Amino acid sequence: MSAPGSVTPEVDAQALTTSTPLVADAVSMWEIAAASRVLDVKPRYAYALMCRDFSATSIVARLGDRVVGYVTGYLRPDAPDTLFVWQVAVHADARGRRAAATMLDELVSRVRATFLETTITADNDASIALFSGLAQRRGAGMERTELFDGAVLGADHDPEFLYRIGPMTHASDDARTR
Ligand SMILES: CC(C)(COP(=O)(O)OP(=O)(O)OC[C@H]1O[C@@H](n2cnc3c(N)ncnc32)[C@H](O)[C@@H]1OP(=O)(O)O)[C@@H](O)C(=O)NCCC(=O)NCCS
Questions:
Q1: Which domain range does residue 168 map to?
Q2: Angstrom distance (rounded) from CA 164 to CA 114
Q3: Domain-located, residue 2
Q4: pLDDT tens-digit profile of 91-134?
Q5: How far is the CA of 91 from the centre of ligand 1 (A)?
Q6: How far apart are CA 28 and CA 167, in angstroms?
């Protein structure tokens, strides 16, 4: 048995692929969220809705047939140039092989939003590193402000800080598709 968080040889040999989520992926996404022990786990219904109605602004990663990660997001109705990333998760079996970074890069290239927002709790170093890396690769700034505190989320929930990345340009995406 492999150590928690490690990549087994079988998993390591498989190529990572990404695609827009299907409704059939919702259960896997819910299982990955629950296994993370970090994320707020929503009802399966919420993941199914994300897959049905927000697949254009979401992405899943697979190793073989198995869903090992996802990013869910939406364009903010009041600011349609802004992609709000709701959750990012990669199963422990597949971490550390740039699955999350690849999903974010591909999603940003596909959606072509000018700004990206997400919220992160102060103790989530992995998530802060993930989004800092995205801002660097896009040559974009990143601002942090407090969005939801305990008065909104409940005293037992850490404050969620809003990270706003942008403006992002898509010149390198254009060059790649030309
Ligand atoms: C955060 C998470 C999605 C990262 O997934 P991953 O596929 O292992 O990340 P990647 O391999 O793509 O690494 C992306 C960057 O994050 C950094 N990183 C990843 N895990 C890290 C950790 N535990 N501590 C510090 N940095 C970390 C990598 O070094 C890399 O940085 P770089 O771009 O500067 O080289 C994964 O750890 C996870 O699912 N965590 C639980 C859920 C969660 O916290 N989600 C985010 C909040 S919504």
A1: 9-177
A2: 11
A3: no
A4: 999 999 999 999 999 999 999 999 999 999 999 999 999 999 99
A5: 11
A6: 33
Q: Which of 29, 130, 131, 136 to mutate to test the pocket of ligand 1 (most atoms within 8 A of CB)?
A: 130
How many CA atoms, within 13 angstroms, populate the side-chain half-sphere of residue 56?
7
Assess if residue 170 is contained within a domain.
yes
* Whole-number pLDDT of residue 12: 64
Query: Ligand 1 mean position to 135 CA, how many Å?
Result: 14
Cα 127–chain centre separation: 9
> What's the whole-model pTM score?
0.92
Tally of domains in the chain: 1
5-46 confidence digits (pLDDT tens): 445 555 666 899 999 999 999 999 999 999 999 899 999 999
Nearest CA to ligand 1 atom 26: 126
Domain of 125, CATH number, reads 3.40.630.30
How many angstroms does the Cα of residue 33 sit away from the middle of ligand 1?
14
CA of residue 55 to ligand 1 center, whole Å: 22
* 4 within a domain of the structure (yes/no): no
The backbone torsions φ and ψ at residue 46, rounded to the nearest 5 degrees and listed phi first, read -65, -40
CA distance 173 to 98: 19
